[in-house]
Amino acid sequence: MSAYVLPPPPATAVPVAGSDLLFPVRRVYCVGRNYAAHAREMGFSDREPPFFFCKPTDAIVPIREGTTAEIPYPACTTDFQHEIELVVAIGRRGSDIPVGEALDHVFGYAVGLDMTRRDLQIRMREQGRPWEIGKSFDGSALVGEIRAAAAIGHPERARIRVDVDGQTRQDSDIDQLIWNVAETIAHLSGWFELHPGDLVYTGTPAGVGPVQAGQTMIGVVEGLGELRVHVGAGLQNPTPSARP
Ligand code: MN
Fold this sequence. Notes:
Elements: E1 13-15, E2 22-24, E3 28-32, H1 36-41, E4 51-55, E5 60-62, E6 68-73, E7 80-82, E8 84-90, H2 99-102, E9 106-114, E10 116-117, H3 118-126, H4 132-135, E11 141-143, E12 147-148, H5 149-152, E13 159-164, E14 167-173, H6 181-191, E15 199-201, E16 209-210, E17 216-221, E18 226-234
Parallel strand pairs: 3-15, 5-11, 6-18
Antiparallel strand pairs: 1-2, 3-4, 7-10, 7-16, 8-9, 8-15, 9-11, 9-12, 13-14, 13-17, 17-18
Manganese (II) ion binds next to loops.
């Protein structure tokens, strides 16, 4: 057996609510434009099939219930935006999963924030380039404790909301998802074999907008707890145009 030439990177894990257990994270998938009103606010129709992008596992910031996470305002943006999302934690392997069996592959659910450098995402979109610099930067995938489906079931209706400094920005219900959890898993598993440890950010409702250094976000999905995040001072922060 060979030794590593460097220390292997630490494993990413998310706490499971009401236990000392951790959910080990394998991959992070995200759905684009999965609420009709948000698709319209981004300039698209609401009738497209779901599409997916990924974030690196080490972009995950797990947040314990009752604590406030501190994240830095990221570099290279002047438009750092919140996207409150229902996150699905996959517990069973599968590909080409039928809609009727999809929920059997769910371990549990959590509240998440898909943080976005919107100016960079839109610039990449306009240039037909990948979204990574807008979506997949360090600390861009915030997630709360995972509630096991064995304990809470599979929520179909639940208010989903995020407040910034006490002002409600996004306020909808997960029953407004264009592609619900089962349909999303069915689609996604056609493109990728899903494995235990995968997380799926299911998309955000309308009302996305910027958050500034010094502000506090509180994200909630009814029945799944609360995410509290304070945005700290910026990293080195050239305007996007300062880079080629
Ligand atoms: Mn999103």
